Recover the amino acids of this structure.
């Protein structure tokens, strides 16, 4: 891991731990989970929000004002809103994606869930996602939350990551294997 990435994850871990414990003490993990999912979706969908949290050109006060407006518009719980305001005042909004990931992991651990990162060549239907979650649950014995992404370069099949385990059934992977075998022969 590169040094800036480890610094970011360390900062995010401290904020995530504090937010998680405050929400847990207030018996409000369900609201926290909803807020974090909304915030994660906003980060994924809005290039302007990503630019805001990463831009060194935007002043602290402008970042704080903008992130407060976003928090109010999204109706985030006070714990999350206050944390975002604090992060803006310390110029640490750049760790927001890592904070979201850390909080998702803490909430999943609390619920006894594991997250399976699934990459497919095209978007999976709800039925396919449910069947996959059941199959993974049967294999590992824990509830599974699917984090699905689409990568058309896979051509077909799936790449599934659960913890440190990875299953790659993509056609791209099979073609690469076949290509390597043919190179060895010729």
């Amino acid at each position: 891991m590169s040094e800036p990435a480890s610094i970011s994850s360390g900062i995010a871990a401290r904020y995530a731990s504090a937010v998680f414990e405050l929400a847990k003490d207030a018996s409000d993990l369900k609201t926290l989970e909803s807020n974090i999912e909304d915030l994660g979706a906003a980060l994924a969908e809005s290039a302007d929000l990503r630019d805001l949290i990463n831009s060194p050109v935007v002043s602290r006060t402008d970042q704080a004002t903008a992130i407060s407006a976003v928090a109010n518009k999204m109706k985030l719980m006070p714990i999350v809103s206050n944390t975002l305001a604090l992060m803006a005042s310390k110029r640490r909004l750049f760790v927001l994606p890592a904070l979201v990931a850390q909080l998702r992991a803490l909430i999943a651990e609390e619920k006894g869930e594991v997250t399976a990162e699934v990459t497919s060549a095209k978007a999976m239907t709800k039925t396919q996602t449910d069947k996959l979650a059941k199959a993974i649950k049967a294999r590992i014995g824990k509830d599974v939350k699917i984090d699905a992404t689409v990568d058309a370069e896979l051509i077909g099949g799936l790449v599934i990551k659960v913890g440190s385990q990875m299953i790659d059934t993509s056609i791209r992977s099979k073609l690469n294997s076949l290509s390597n075998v043919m190179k060895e022969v010729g």
Remarks:
- The domain at 113-185 is CATH 3.40.30 (Glutaredoxin).
